[in-house]
Design a protein that fits this description.
The chain is an alpha/beta fold. It has 16 helices and 23 strands. It has helices at about 70-75, 85-95, 120-130, 145-155, 165-175, 180-195, 210-220, 235-240, 295-310, 320-335, 345-355, 365-375, 390-395, 410-420, 435-445, 470-475; strands spanning about 5-10, 25-30, 35-40, 50, 55-60, 60-65, 80, 105-110, 135, 140-145, 165, 200-205, 225-230, 260-265, 315, 335-340, 345, 360, 385, 400, 460-465, 480-485, 490. Strands 1, 2, 3, 4, 5, 21, 22 and 23 form an 8-stranded mixed β-sheet that branches. An 8-stranded parallel β-sheet has the order 6-12-13-14-15-16-18-20.
Length: about 500
């Protein structure tokens, strides 16, 4: 899984560059997958494969710390509904689409939180007839089904809107993702090649199924496009314990490519589905504060079991009430791990977030995708919405991801969102939470702390422009000249 390589005449633009005495080009020698030497350009003469960087810029390999891998890979086969501005338009897009081989029509990416009228089962039935039709919300926390699909899945007794939410929605996603191994593995290979072309060298896999065996199978079949840390959910906790898995350890049979990740716990809903657990009610219903999907006592017990057996945790918490509940559990158990999303954080919780050394695993693109919904659904909130600079200023460690397929798995889109806080011509959204390009590159590296230096793992990205000088659009579309994983080239333009 590692190789020897000489990068000639490159400039170090990311973490580690501050330790070099000059910004002039250097040669970087990679031996057995590690950085063995860094010297002024032209001074290293060794008989290994070479890439002439021609003065281009090199940064540490980019990671996406939150990916639903199978759903992301299969998303390319689904009707894209992000353009739909109404339930009628979303229904029409799926009505005109071709069915999958099993007869189902699957669309993904609608945002009903931005629609002026609600979805209805009758409307979807009228548009789609008897073809089982499934429309997955962009946030994956709800799925809109027609009557044929509801009957097929055994959920025919739901409300007239045809919407399944939270655990019922997750169950539908699990069923839609449960295609044959060959189809899934081919889709993942194709998606991984696209990711490598954008500089991805690793990701944290939050697929909702047990994936250890699947990653062993893929590695045995030659998958080698990026590193993986796989998570698992409460249903797999006892299995992980019984198999002696420990977070951070290599998964046997994967040649160092795959490592055990955290226990994933979903403790509240989402903004788009209006189920994120908040301190203030959602507009229109004074009794609606969202939902805590794991009660505090149960959450504490799960963290205790995980911590006692060497497992880290990744706690999904979007609303401020859920974030507070997660921090309570971390305080009680002294568990190690992350809070995923942290989209609404009370000012008073920032200090203990840092004191506990809990990592904030956040998705900067969500702030731009959700800004209009935030101004509507969270307009009465007093906590900090979609913090980035706020977290770093408080001393909280930060990692970046996409939550793909919720947002595109493109680290440059993520980085640009964090640095510029807008993706169109509108004013910057909460510009006080912009971060610097150096902070964004660091948060996008493995575990948010990778650096280029002697002895470091040689996961690198060669960029066609200097990220530190790039404007918003150049950063979003950054040209990747090469992606290197442990000294092996996984992409070369």
């Amino acid at each position: 899984m590692s190789g020897d390589l000489l990068l000639r005449s490159v400039r170090v633009a990311g973490p580690g560059g501050e330790l070099l005495p000059t910004e002039e080009p250097v040669d970087i020698l990679i031996r057995a997958g590690l950085i063995a030497d860094i010297a002024p350009a032209g001074n290293l003469r060794v008989a290994v494969e070479e890439i002439d960087g021609d003065g281009m810029w090199v940064i540490p390999g980019l990671w996406d710390h939150h990916v639903h891998t199978v759903q992301w890979a299969l998303d390319a086969q689904r009707v894209q509904l992000g353009v739909a501005t109404s339930p009628s338009e979303a229904a029409r897009l799926t009505a005109d689409a071709a069915a999958l081989p099993d007869g189902r029509v699957v669309g993904a990416g609608f945002r009903d939180g931005l629609w002026s009228e609600p979805p209805s089962r009758a409307l979807l039935d009228e548009m789609t007839g008897e073809r089982p039709t499934y429309l997955i919300n962009a946030d994956v926390h709800s799925v809109w089904l027609n009557s044929a699909a509801l009957r097929r899945e055994g959920f025919d007794g739901v409300d007239d809107d045809g919407m399944l939410r939270e655990e019922d929605a997750f169950e539908i996603s699990r069923r839609l993702n449960a295609t044959d191994d060959a189809t899934v593995d081919a889709a993942i290979r194709t998606a991984a090649e696209r990711a490598a072309s954008r500089g991805i060298t690793g990701l944290v896999d939050f697929d909702m199924a047990w994936t250890a065996d699947a990653w062993r199978r893929r590695a045995a079949a030659g998958f080698d496009m990026h590193r993986v840390e796989f998570a698992f959910y409460p249903a797999g906790l006892q299995r992980a314990i019984d198999e002696g898995l420990r977070s951070g350890e290599e998964l046997d049979g994967t040649q160092g490519l795959v490592h055990v990740g955290p226990l994933k716990l979903i403790t509240d809903g989402s903004l788009g589905t209006r189920t994120a657990a908040c301190s203030h009610p959602y507009p229109g219903d004074p009794a609606d504060f969202g939902v805590l999907t794991i009660p505090p006592d149960e959450l504490r017990d799960l963290l205790t079991r995980a911590t006692a057996t060497g497992l880290e945790v990744a706690v999904h918490a979007i609303g401020d009430r859920a974030v507070a509940s997660a921090l309570d559990a971390f305080t009680y158990t002294q568990a190690r791990g992350t809070i995923e999303h942290a989209q609404l954080v009370r000012h008073a919780d920032l200090a203990r977030f840092a004191r506990l050394d809990v990592v904030a695993s956040v998705q900067p693109a969500h702030a731009l995708d959700d800004r209009d919904m935030v101004e509507d659904l969270w307009r009465h909130q007093q906590a900090v919405s979609y913090p980035l600079a706020t977290l770093l200023t408080a001393g909280i460690r930060v990692r970046f991801g996409s939550d793909a397929p919720v947002a595109p798995l493109d680290p440059w889109v993520t980085i640009a969102a964090a640095v510029h806080r807008t993706d169109d011509e509108r004013a910057l959204w909460h510009p006080e939470d912009r971060v610097s390009i150096d902070q964004a590159l660091l948060a996008s590296s493995r575990h948010g702390d990778a650096s280029i230096g002697l002895g470091a793992v040689a996961d690198l990205v060669l960029c066609g422009a200097d990220p530190r000088a790039a404007g918003r659009e150049e950063l979003r579309r950054m040209r990747v000249a090469a992606t290197i994983l442990g000294g092996r080239v996984t992409f070369r333009a």
